[in-house]
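Exercise 7.
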Amino acid sequence: MYDEKLIEKIVAEVINSSVSTNSEAKAETINSDDKEIKVGVSQRHVHLSQADLETLFGKGYELTVKKVLMGKEFASNEVVTLVGPSLKAIENVRVLGPVRKNTQVEISRTDTFVLKVSPPVRPSGDIKGSEKMVLVGPKGSVYLKEGVIIANRHIHLSPEGALENGVSDGDCVDVRIEGEKPTLFYDVQVRVREDFHSEMHLDTDDANSAGLKNGNKVKILAKRKSK
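Solution. The predicted structure, written as tokens, is:
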């Protein structure tokens, strides 16, 4: 026969020991002076070259501003349809302006299951050898031989924000998310520019996995070597 009182005592000691150990670990890891950074959840979107914009919307077409974003970018009123090899489509995908040198499509891993594509995880602008896609607009269609990526997790900072957080452009950091679904994201790229403000960008999959919404706050936990 088991001694129930002895078992209860042992269980209580184990629980107390566990709580104490976890508290000590947090005290060593968490810096109360850490600066909080706002979250921006990035929906699937498209950046267009001028040539592709005109193919999709008509010669001489210019994007119209719906909402101003950071870094001189804006969400336009224009949308396109993405079509993958499966011929399944995702409609009403927002175009971000201004136009770029090369067209780029940023989607989530969940989107790839619909479109049947396998894009790499890349920083914005790194599209060489990336996935193919067909874009359809009101005036025509564009076949991209490359340009489809899943954007890497990244943090935008002003030079002042970078100095405040002890990081530099190109650094990779670990980020702690607290709340109902505590999470740790590793190797989050830091991007520093004069026209940026402090904001961490995640795609919808990452945000949902950590229970994050626009405006939630996260903290940089540790800096890793630059890549």
